[in-house]
């Protein structure tokens, strides 16, 4: 049975890897492991050792604490057992949301600002 902290850290690995446009194979190659192990880390089925997390953080160009952001020990454990990810508002588990964010940041900054303003206006109208 996976631990909620392992699942959270795995989601953060997947999110960062995906935002960088990196495949599991590419990340595995960078840290010297098979892509299947990356899959297991990302689902929280396997725990990531401290030294491996260090390697992954370097490969993904983030500090170690990035993987623990948003982690609330007791409430995370309770939520993991009682609610699905979408109901908790876990955007890291929503592939469409991740794709939208990645696409958004691929837009040039001046156009991105205009799109942001449009989205704000549309959301207020709903």
From TrEMBL:
Residues 13-67 form the HTH cro/C1-type domain. CDD domains: HTH_XRE (cd00093). One of its GO terms (molecular function) is DNA binding. Gene3D superfamilies: lambda repressor-like DNA-binding domains (1.10.260.40). Transmembrane segments: none annotated. InterPro entries: Cro/C1-type_HTH, Lambda_DNA-bd_dom_sf. This is Transcriptional regulator, contains XRE-family HTH domain. It comes from Albimonas pacifica.
């Amino acid at each position: 049975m996976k631990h909620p902290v392992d699942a959270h850290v795995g989601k953060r690995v997947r999110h960062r890897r995906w935002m960088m446009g990196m495949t599991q194979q590419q990340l595995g190659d960078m840290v010297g492991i098979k892509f299947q192990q990356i899959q297991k880390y990302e689902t929280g089925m396997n725990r990531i050792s401290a030294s491996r997390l260090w390697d992954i953080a370097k490969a993904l160009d983030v500090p170690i604490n990035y993987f623990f952001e948003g982690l609330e020990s007791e409430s995370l454990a309770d939520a993991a057992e009682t609610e699905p990810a979408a109901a908790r508002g876990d955007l890291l588990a929503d592939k469409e949301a991740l794709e939208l964010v990645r696409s958004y940041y691929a837009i040039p900054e001046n156009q991105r600002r205009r799109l942001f303003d449009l989205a704000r206006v549309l959301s207020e109208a709903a």
